[in-house]
Amino acid sequence: MEKKLICVILIAALTACNQNKNSDTKASNSKGIDSLATSQAARELPTGPDTNVKITQEYAALAAKDAYFWAWPLVNMYNRRMAFKDVKELALSGPLLMAPLNQFTMLTDYVIPTERAIACPNQDVVYGIGCLALDQSPVVVQVPDFGKRFWVYQIVDLRTESFAKLGKMYDNKPGFYLLAGPDWKGEVPKGIIKVFRSSTNTGLVGPRVFLDDTKEDRKAIQEVLKSVVMYPLSDYDGKMKTIDWANIKKLPGGEGGKEEAVWVNPQTFFDELPIVLADAKPLPGEEAKYKQILAVVEAAKKDPKLKQAMIDAAVETERQVIKPLMEFRSWGIQLPFHWSGVTNGASWGTDYFTRTAVAKSNILVNAPNETRYFYQDLDSEGGRLNSSNKYKITFAKGQLPPVNGFWSLTLYNEHHFFEINKLNRYSLGTKNKTMAYNPDGSLTIYIQSVPTDAKTQNNWLPAVEKGDFSLYLRTYWPKEEVVNGKWTPPAVIKVE
């Protein structure tokens, strides 16, 4: 009995020992974890690269390629502002609209076919264009009473993102609207209906007013165009200003070559980038990206070899990555019959690929609820659209593009511009009142370089004389079935 009691006491003692040991171990581990957490919290992590550290040319080139791609649209917009900074008066220079910063100039008819400043122009609207410099002043945008006429003002920031909703689809009242930069803290004058705040100081305003392709409508539109005006806040007096756009100064020149004017130059890109990024503050999640490239740019200022490596990388990226984005078939949401498009137009966020693809191929698109675009480089069999062939596209009865505004089908050459033709016709759609419908109620548009027969000539969309071309379907103020993707364009059929 005594031996059994001793054994029980020993077992109890050993168990207690083990429990104490385990407890001590847990306490020790807990203390270690707490100590590690405290140490990490106490340690100050760097907010960006150490600019005193030597970097390699290969790394500089790598960083340069990435930055050149995602910042390409921003530098593009910055250089458009720079092109307008020395303009002193409203004028037309050949087909180009010229205006001092914080003002725009309006056309009085469709854009001239030789325009080469902005790819993919359209001949459905009367355009205006002007650059914003909101660091200099807020601006007032006048909206006249357009009556039943479709209108929309495209207003975008440095990232080509829309920051103001002005258009027939928004039911805006006629009157005065204010555009202000991110840091403006002034008092809003009496009579201003609404203030739209941009996240950047640089931007662009482009009014678009629908015009029927008739002499009668060309005359009818002139009076309302006179009140489509923008000016610095200091000129605001609460009274609607008017400008007779038909009589502004006309200057010679302004016509470019075959391609869009060069707005992004790899040789100067990294000199301009710090200025651009100072205006476009980083979006959430972009802070590290900004600091990384700015550190490399700073290092390149002290090392010509690094600078040259960055320029060479930009040249390579322009050739290998940016230039192919001119082809619509290279990107976008793929739709039936080889059409493509995007659903986040003018609202890119950090979708850098689509933002740059659109900026390269057809910069300054509207938001999808304002305009939904459909792009086409191919026929129904996947062959490249080319002037050596004839094509047709047929909208079944009741299946014309569903819009509250208007629709049009435009043809561009390989550089996404008009190529002059004898009919002076570059698009067909709502504005064309003489198109003939088929006996079954469908509508066929004929796309070819040679004339059609007399019966179908009003339905003929002339192709370029020689080479590849693209089609571009616009749906202004699209109905819900277009916005949600239930309606897409019919096939482009090659005619044997």
Structure description:
The protein is of the alpha+beta class and 496 residues long. It has helices spanning 2-42, 57-84, 215-220, 222-225, 269-279, 287-302, 304-322, 352-362, 480-483; strands at 91-93, 96-98, 105-106, 125-133, 139-143, 151-157, 166-167, 175-180, 192-197, 202-210, 230-232, 249-251, 333-334, 340-341, 371-376, 390-395, 403-413, 427-429, 443-448, 460-462, 469-478, 493-495. The protein has a five-stranded antiparallel beta sheet, with helices on one face. The chain has a four-stranded mixed beta sheet with strand order 9-8-5-11, with no helix packed on it. Helix 2 packs across helix 6, helix 2 (57-84) crosses helix 7 (304-322) and helix 2 packs across helix 8 (352-362). 38% of the residues are buried. Pfam families: DUF1214 (PF06742), DUF1254 (PF06863). Residues 102-232 form the DUF1254 domain. Residues 371-480 form the DUF1214 domain. This is DUF1254 domain-containing protein.
